[in-house]
Amino acid sequence: MLEDIHINDFALIDKVSLEFGSGFTVLSGETGAGKSILIGAISFLLGGKGGVELIRAGATEARVSGTVKLNARAKGVYAWLSDRGIEAENDRILIRRLVKDSGKSAAWVQDVPVTRQELAELTSWLIDIHGQHEHQSLMRTGEHRRFLDSYAGIEEEVERFTALYSKLVEKRNLLAAADESESKRAERIELLRFACDEIASARLREGEEAELVQEENRLSQYEKLYGEIESFSNLLNGEGDTVLSSLKKANAHLEHASHSDPSLDTLAKRMETAFYELSDIAGEVRSYAQSLVFDPARLEEVQERLALFFKLKKKYAASVQSPLSEVIAYAQKAAEQLEALADADTNKKALADEVAVLERQAYKDATIISQKRRAAADKMAQEVEAVLADLGMKNSRFCVHIEQKEAVSDDQKCGPYGIDDIEFLISANPGNPPKPLAKIASGGELSRVMLALKTVLNRSDITDTLIFDEIDTGIGGEVAVAVGAHLKRLAADRQILCITHLAAIAVYADTQIKIEKSVQNGITATRVCEVSGEKRVEEIARMLSGDAVSSVSLEHARTLLKSYGSFGG
Asked: Bridge-partner residues for 203, per DSSP?
């Protein structure tokens, strides 16, 4: 759930901070006031595309941050965070994103920098935006399979199949490697053996690189280090009036004073302890200084060793900045591949038999999953159509199209989620055959289809926050009332944010936020604030008739709020 958002210098927004509660929140305002700018800022925060065009005129950067409360059911979110060493605090994460006028952009989850793609991956579990924005899961055909599986209650079964399929792919790859021509296999063996020998001859040891870097620093800065240590020793225990000699005298004076006044005895003992502690430090530093030896041969040896590490990492690690452990891991993996290739002839038949068993099991499991999908598809389509009828799309036909994947060889080919290609189709007008959503549905229709799906999938869907933009396009009257009622019901156990021009939808909201545009000192700015009580009555009246002060409009607004909303003004 999106708990708050803070926007600075984004488009027409100078500075806005908003807190969002659970339930149903409506964003309203006159046309052109900047309602979609707020949704655009949220989309940007969630990993949507955006460049310097988002920066407010006169500013050098646009910044958006927000706090998201996590859903304990969204296990994928916690796994994603754990993989990147990110810890949620009280089941909440802080997301920050900015873009500078230089074109450079950055994003963080908590204090950990992430890429835009990583951010979009994370937030796809948390918040879904429906309208003219990137977070349209309906426009991604791959998500249709997830919706159907959620409805059919087979998500865990599909996860187990995916694990089985991954194992099958791994074994097939091994078999393919075993089937390589002898010359290619011999070439591969030679390359792997060379890598193993080269790494083994280096005799790498965990932690050695850090030790050598520290030693190189010490040897290369010997003169500076020795000078500092010598100056320290001279100050403490050199010739003449030093720190230790002065402390010794001070210690004696305080000890004599304590003979005259026993209340000073504790201080005298502390002074004595301090003197002996400092004397001990001086002795250890003196011993350290005596052990310091500048050895140019050793420095050269250390630098050669570090250069070897650099060379090995360049060849066998992800980058030269990678830890040396990656090179060691590469050698271990290469040794395993060598063993597998060496035993290829012996193991090839056993491997082929294992692949055959896995293929039969995968096809069997995929067929069962496909049957369950087909059994659920018609029922799901009927339920979605029933909701769409309430939402003003009475003559629409919704279809879950399931087609078996084509085999690309003699073997039956499955994908990681089974043997089905799944796509949602819709016909918004009688007599027209159903076609893909992306080709025929408008923004308003897409939002209503998503609203219908979310209503049908309400129990199983883990997305906590749904944002609807343009859901009221082309509707009014009873249909608008029905849309508002559906949003209200959907908000019973999740957070709903909705941009609307219609009072019939807005009156259902638990919270209403007004967005308005103003001009100050010749600069256009968008302001955002929550309205309640009489202010909300006036905003509903404006939405009804464009007149926020007419007694008739105000009375109509009060009636609607008392009938459908929670009005205490």
From this structure: none
